[in-house]
Amino acid sequence: MSGNFLALAQPGVQQLSPYVPGKPVDELARELDLDPAKIVKLASNENPLGASPKALAAIREELAELTRYPDGNGFALKSLLAEQCRVELSQVTLGNGSNDILELVARAYLAPGLNAVFSEHAFAVYPIATQAVGAQAKVVPAKDWGHDLPAMFAAIDANTRVVFIANPNNPTGTWFGAEALDEFLQDVPEHVLVVLDEAYIEYAEGSDLPDGLDFLAAYPNLLVSRTFSKAYGLASLRVGYGLSTPVVADVLNRVRQPFNVNSLALAAACAALKDEEYLAQSRQLNESGMQQLQTGFRELGLGWIESKGNFICVDLGQVAAPIFQGLLREGVIVRPVANYGMPNHLRVTIGLPAENSRFLEALRKVLARG
Ligand SMILES: *Cc1c(COP(=O)(O)O)cnc(C)c1O
Q1: Where are the N6-(pyridoxal phosphate)lysine modifications (predicted)?
Q2: N or C: lower Cβ tally within 10 Å for the chain?
């Protein structure tokens, strides 16, 4: 007798939909018989600069050691991070992408009967991590596309163990200030772990966004997660980190894969962290590209959601889905966000100036066709 292996999966997993990534360039090239070199992908919040030359050099050097297991403790990278983030080495957890950190938190602190609270229009990995371990996802309605922190606090109950908040949030780009964060952290019960996902924080420096690290000392139930995938330009290597109390870091360390971050990723992340010029260039490119897209949207009479990330959601009303298809035919890949409860928007990653122009030109054409 054969088993029904969908029905046999634990109920939380049966209710999940797989994560939908941005459409890969090669896939679109195959489907439409296009030259991959002419396709513009602005769909996955990747850094359009390409990886830092210093990171590439570090990887080349590390290749000689590929036969060996990586340093399972990630000593060199943790040391650099501890110094830069003004924390002890024992407070750093490395992850296979910050995605890994989110999953480690879920595995260590969630279980059937317990729940995690997060916002509507939040990162798709929060429900996946939560339901994969049989816990309940408590989704709180957003306010003006952003996190409604007081409502999220109100949603916390006796079975809540984790709250996921992203600042800025993906896919909306919305953010909250230091005061709102502080009030929220003061309110949240001490036994609830607050995961502050700062995947895009490097783009927001100098703005009114709080630096999560400033709150670590005061709130032992805070974990700040960050990544090398976005502003540091290393998405393919999968490396991110969490900063927390040593106790939480110790707990996460118990459930992680022994070698969850590979040696090329470790070496590249160390080099990228030291390459301040690359980071400054990433920020500058993002700022000017954001202006370029907003100017283009204004000229086209389109609205958007203000964003502090390296992406922006443009409002296309009822025709967002056909416009997405029309853009694909023009060789431009952006991201539909209907599966995030945003059927009228498309999320566009800030690209190089020429990529942004190609996108705006394609959008103009597709809109004109009606
Ligand atoms: C991209 C992203 C991440 C992390 O990505 P990794 O590549 O796994 O580090 C985490 N949170 C949000 C909100 C993101 O957009």
Answers
A1: 230
A2: N
